[in-house]
Amino acid sequence: MTSTVLPGPLVSAQWLAEHLGPPVVILDATVILPAAEHDGDYRPANARERFAAGHVPGSRYADLLGELSDPAARYHFARPAPGQLAEALARLGVTDSSLVVAYDSEGGVWAARLWWMLRWIGVPAAVLDGGYAGWLASGGAVESGVTSQASCFPRTVPVTPRERPGMWADRDDVAAIAAGSQARSLVCALPAEHFAGMAPTRYSRRGHIPASVSIPARTLLTADGRLRAEAELRQATAGLPAAEPVTVYCGGGISAAVVAHALTIIGRDDVAVYDGSLEEWSADPDLPLDLGG
Description:
Elements: E1 10-11, H1 13-17, E2 24-28, E3 31-32, E4 45-46, H2 48-53, E5 60-61, H3 82-91, E6 99-103, H4 109-120, E7 125-128, H5 131-137, E8 168-169, H6 171-178, E9 185-188, H7 192-195, E10 212-214, H8 230-236, E11 246-249, H9 255-265, E12 271-274, H10 277-281
Parallel strand pairs: 1-7, 2-5, 2-6, 6-7, 8-12, 9-10, 9-11, 11-12
Antiparallel strand pairs: 3-4
Helix pairs in contact: 4-9
């Protein structure tokens, strides 16, 4: 018998429909995050009720705002320690033999974030292209309720973290890039109007980190939430020098993961995500932010 393998960091609804069940574990990473109505308007919420209303059969809800983040951090969605992440994944039924497919119902950004975290600790994972909407459009079946969310997985850690270095950047790393003392490309994944400081921000101050360029995550996706073709991704990121590693940020390290996912798909293996992003950076009045394009 041929063992199941993921075809890459992105899988189609057709592929998933043909591989429902072990070793594939399907995780819905949806978070509800309304657009800011005024500066500082930050209202994230988990989507458990939406998950219960309908989800891909057999999937489980992965709470990026809660059990899959570090509650002691000073900003939302902070990555947990590898062991803590492994324990949370174990409670979702993930083991060392699992292949994880992540999706969401908010355009793919949350699934990309979960994929990045899984990749970090060596769990084979992919993003469902088009997310839940793509699944429905393909004629995929729907399950409701929470019967697929097992109530009691072993409390042991059947996931062995194999930490991949270089996937995260911290504030000091980014400050060095902004000051010109570290040769890395710095990319802002927020919409262009947020990069320019022309729209209300969820965070403390408007603008972008000095030395960064704008590659909005949503421009790498089609209108129906699918990742653009590789040729289009290469064109959209052509301004990033091949010789310089890339650090990506956004508001909270979420949209940044979409850019990181796209760069990985086109063959770049030198990408880091600034986990704290603007929620952390803007909270310190001594750290600079630029306005305008």
